[in-house]
Amino acid sequence: PIEVKKICCIGAGYVGGPTCAVIPHIQVTIVDLNQQRIDAWNSDELPIYEPGLDEVVKKARGKNLFFSTDVDKGIEEADLIFVSVNTPTKKSGIGAGFAADLKFLQLATRRIAEVAKSSKIVVEKSTVPCRTADAMRTILEANSKPGCHFDILSNPEFLAEGTAIEDLFAPDRVLIGSLQTQQGLDACAALAGVYANWVPRERILTVGLWSSELSKLAANAMLAQRISSVNALSAICEATGANIDEVAYAVGKDTRMGSKFLKASVGFGGSCFQKDILNLVYLSESLHLPEVAKYWRAVVEMNEYQKSRFANKVVDTLFNTITGKKIAILGWAFKKDTGDTRESPAITLANHFLTEKARINIYDPQVSKDQIWLDLTDYGDIPAEPIKPHVTISQSVEEACHNAEAIVICTEWDEFKTLDWQKIYDNCPRPAFVFDGRLILDRKALTDIGFKVTSIGTGDRL
Ligand code: NAD
Ligand code: UDX
């Protein structure tokens, strides 16, 4: 089998950084056009927060792990190249709002073809629509130098943020898709050989190229579908007196179902679920499968409904107006143990509260003030001046909750589970309202203190 001696990864983001940092022995250079990001990867303040990442990077950096902006050198030296660039939802043109924007992927592919002086294995690690490898092959073949041959593999990444390092060290599976030609299978064996350094062979699955590409969209769509299903049921619970945690527990005990990914919430966020489902919707439509498209679109629609339902509940409960009222938002990240805020439900809620002219006070243990402002202004698309008087960003829970008429839990950070709620209550006007968007609080204990507690999936009916 071909032995991979040098790896290059194009894209030093949430996926490229952690996935390459766990590769032992083999020399890996992660390249990116973003100088600031590369500088951060080479410093003590890594550009992303992920438990365990600092330790892994510090151990390997300068030994077998390198970060650089010299994309061309990275490509030239490597025999295997991961393409791990962003593939966001298209904002304009055909498929706007649904299709994946593949410009970064295509630019990276073109660069590989232009720069490579020897044959390479090119690995699609970004999440892409089914049959993207075909387009990559055409670009590579049309631009390559004589004698250079490219094999394309699909190797989607399944890590979840917040647990990326554990997921990468002990993955449920590694998926590699290749053409079923001898060359394709040889390239597949070479990449499998890289993973075999730390992943048991039986967890390395090898399939066809198109199955691999589609499996990634399928996995994310089905995971998100579970959340939308449980969130839809949470609305029924609130109206009937059933309790969503109890329902999810009972349903999840069925071994055919399993208990994971059944936690009701204010809605799912993150850079992947919505984007990948919309991508699947677009794919279904372009394949003339409108019923299939409609089915998956409903998963995203239910998520939008859950977020607005929760926001409306806050307004209703505060006697139909929150104008001028102070609302504490606890948590800004899309889930705990990450500083990532992409598609975070907290952003939707904050926008809703600002439209209602409330004053919001935000606290998150990992998200910077600058990032919160980027999110509130949609990266500069919304003017900051008009909302500035209504927004405060706090350094502690106590500060955010001081004098708040409502406290809204948006992220399930562990530190929110052990707060001194009596002390917080003593500093709130009456009635003091808490809205638990993550089902992490002890409802009875808070009610005993005097709070009026509203949680997702539990109503007031006995
Ligand atoms: P990201 O935005 O954090 O990182 C992508 C990086 O690629 C950026 O730093 C950008 O500067 C760089 N880049 C873009 N074009 C480039 C080019 N031509 N040359 C060099 N560098 C370039 O994105 P991410 O979250 O790491 O996601 C990357 C891909 O992985 C996406 O397709 C995503 O869907 C997929 N994915 C993400 C996750 C996740 O949890 N974030 C999980 C699985 C899969
Ligand atoms: C997801 C997939 O899990 C991962 O396999 C893929 O590679 C990338 O997309 P990520 O978005 O990082 O990972 O986090 P995930 O744990 O899936 O959470 C996504 C969102 O769903 C978060 O907002 C989370 O709070 C929410 N969620 C998750 C729920 O509301 N309920 C649950 O039961 C699980």
Automatic annotation (TrEMBL):
SUPFAM superfamilies linked: 6-phosphogluconate dehydrogenase C-terminal domain-like (SSF48179), NAD(P)-binding Rossmann-fold domains (SSF51735), UDP-glucose/GDP-mannose dehydrogenase C-terminal domain (SSF52413)
Entry's EC annotation: 1.1.1.22
GO biological-process terms attached to the record: glycosaminoglycan biosynthetic process
Transmembrane segments: none
GO molecular function: NAD binding; UDP-glucose 6-dehydrogenase activity
Binding positions for substrate per the UniProt entry: 157-161, 216-220, 256, 263-269, 334-335, 438
InterPro entries, per database record: 6-PGluconate_DH-like_C_sf (IPR008927), NAD(P)-bd_dom_sf (IPR036291), UDP-Glc/GDP-Man (IPR017476), UDP-Glc/GDP-Man_DH_C (IPR014027), UDP-Glc/GDP-Man_DH_C_sf (IPR036220), UDP-Glc/GDP-Man_DH_dimer (IPR014026), UDP-Glc/GDP-Man_DH_N (IPR001732), UDPglc_DH_euk (IPR028356)
Binding-site list for NAD(+): 11-16, 32, 37, 85-89, 126-127, 161, 272-275, 342
Gene Ontology CC annotation, any one: nucleus
Coiled coil: none
Uppermost EC category: oxidoreductase
Pathway linked to the protein: Nucleotide-sugar biosynthesis; UDP-alpha-D-glucuronate biosynthesis; UDP-alpha-D-glucuronate from UDP-alpha-D-glucose: step 1/1
Superkingdom: Eukaryota
UniProt keyword Isomerase, yes or no: no
One Pfam match: UDPG_MGDP_dh
UniProt keyword list: NAD, Oxidoreductase
Catalytic activity: UDP-alpha-D-glucose + 2 NAD(+) + H2O = UDP-alpha-D-glucuronate + 2 NADH + 3 H(+)
Family of this protein: Belongs to the UDP-glucose/GDP-mannose dehydrogenase family.
NCBIfam families reported in the protein's UniProt record: NDP-sugDHase (TIGR03026)
Entry protein name: UDP-glucose 6-dehydrogenase
